[in-house]
Amino acid sequence: MSEFLRILEDEVQIVALAFMATVYTIRLIWMFRFKAGKEVTKPVGSPRVGVAYSMMNVAMPWAMESARKNLSFYVQFVIFHLGVLMAITATLILPYWPEFFESEPIVRIFQLFMGAAFAVGLIRLIRRITSPVMRLISTPDDYFSVALLTAWFAAGVFAMPNQYEVSEWPLILFFGMTTLFLIYVPFSKISHYLYYPFTRYFLGKTMGHRGVFPRKKGGEKPAGLE
Amino acid sequence: MSDKTINISDVVNLPLDLKEQKKALEQKSPAVVEGKVKVYDPNKDNVKNLLEMLKNKLSRQTVSSLVGCVHCGMCSDSCHYALARPHDPTMTPAYKADQIRQIFKRYIDWTGRIFPWWVHAKTPKNDEDLNRLKNIVFGTCSGCRRCTLNCPMGVDTAVLVRLTRGLLTELGIVPEGVFVVDKDSWETGNQMGVSQEDYIETLEWQEEEVQAELDDPSFKIPIDKEDCDFMYTVNPREIKYDPRSIAYACKIFHMAGESWTMPSFGWDQTNFGLFSGDDKLGGYIAKNLYEAAKRLRAKRIVISECGHGYRSSRWEGYNWAKYKQDIPSESVLITLIRYINQGLIKVDPSRNPLPITYHDSCNLARSGDLTEEPRWILERICTDFREMHPNRSDNFCCTGGGGALSMVEYKPLRIEVAKVKADQLKATGAKLVCTSCHNCVDGLSDLIKHYKLDMQVVQILDLVAEALVIPEKTEKK
Prior knowledge:
Structural class of chain B: mainly alpha
CATH class of chain A: Mainly Alpha
Number of helices of chain A: 10
Mean pLDDT of chain B: 96
Helix content of chain A: 55-70%
Number of strands of chain A: 0
Strand content of chain B: 5-15%
Shape of chain A: elongated
CATH topology of the largest domain in chain B: Fumarate Reductase Iron-sulfur Protein, Chain B, domain 2
Strand content of chain A: under 5%
Structural class of chain A: mainly alpha
CATH superfamily of chain A: Transmembrane di-heme cytochromes, Chain C
Oligomer: heterodimer
Shape of chain B: globular
CATH architecture of chain A: Up-down Bundle
Radius of gyration of chain B: 23 Å
Number of strands of chain B: 8
């Protein structure tokens, strides 16, 4: 392995990660500087249960009509985010535990997930370009973020065998994109995962307090029967 | 049924109508003179003022919704405006929320301040842009929160729309109807400008009606009686247009042997602050109610049938008024359940034989906690109850929510998008649609008339009163 690739996989990633963490920390401090709404009413339900339900919503496609009626979109969402998980995991394993990728089945599993995520990324990009609704609400950041991730998945597929002795370029491309990714993410919509706990927490707390979450399906005991 | 679709630019370019504002200024309307209701001033830097207010009004909750949208577009399938106008991408909730989001990004968020074009961050240039913003947030969203509950990220678009409405209300850049109702609310303590004399007279009239029906001159609608079990609060629409509902409720309370009262002031459980986004007005109206209960030493507040009234009085009002809830408040539906369950009143479901479906008010189902309660009652007071689909917190708005009924300029669009609701109603085959909201009664009645549905709108209290078994000795001879 060349010194350039070694530094790119290790020190450069650590610096990029530290940068991202620093920006995220500043971002969170910024968010917490806004006043928090205060609830002074007597609860009907449990805010804690509401928060838990709200947080878990992502894993309950049946609980939300938008997911229930668009199951293929939900499956795409799962594949895409599993691809992200696999790619991030790969960036952490490759520099420090390279022998992990000496196993061909493991390499194939990672490639499968990232390849599938790449395909989903392309579908999403096409949807964003062709749908009038998506075009109207999309910003350059939206296009770039999806394109960046999609390209990153493709780079990941080629980098996975970790055969730097054959060619370092796939790894240089993958880690080069990872660096760009880590620096760009805090300023883009990709950082939505940082906000997810907050939006879902606030919604869950309010809706749980009011007894709206968990959502009722029928058959629940009505109030007034005490 | 008309398939005609309106041109959306006719809606977003509707001019700011100032007739009522001018009239209020000429008449030196107290709410305007005291600065409680703002009038539009073209000589002010309204854009700058909006930006200043935005900074001050942001909370952690709203900021999280402003930064959390990933523009996935999933909300478009949940909005009745978008579903009824699939050819019109501007109906997408994310687009509507983006109208304030792009201002937030340009002035408060990071990336938008440095690279505005990259995230479509921009600022309103002038009052015309603010007027356009007004038409979008007041005219193309009923704040039903269906998109909120269907957002994978949990972005509360309805709250962002309300936030924007509130900012525009502070600048007087509002639909005429909103200005008038806000003014009336401040000046009379109720949103329909009902005078205290009219209120008391209506109660006395309904008292006589019930006395005649029960042949019981001792029947009273107690006003300002202290130390009762509960204080009953109503919607001004009941006083003005549907006093029967008060009579029904009072008759039922009487039959149940209840100890109750109605306040002479602080009786309006509705709250236009919810629709105009004016938290100060919201707090004022809600506080009137809470203070009335305190003054009368009532043990509970019972809220008559109204979606936004329940949401405002039971939930938001305490927060707007920063008033710690000291006594319980409940919907009259819960009171009715208690009566039926404890045998305090007897009901005969055979008196309501027509097929009935139930429309969940958005504010009761998505912003309140009442979905099973009306169904529990309906199962006991009618013989043919049919569910509407989707229902409960997935139900579609009556299309008259968010104060839409008071904004006549947007009626053509409201009626067009009501097709979603009309199709939903039609599919039930019911002859009666029951709802527990006066606003929904009007919204549904409008669309039933327009789409020529063979259906009538009723409320739970109407049906309970119909099914009420009155012991022979008190029944009219």
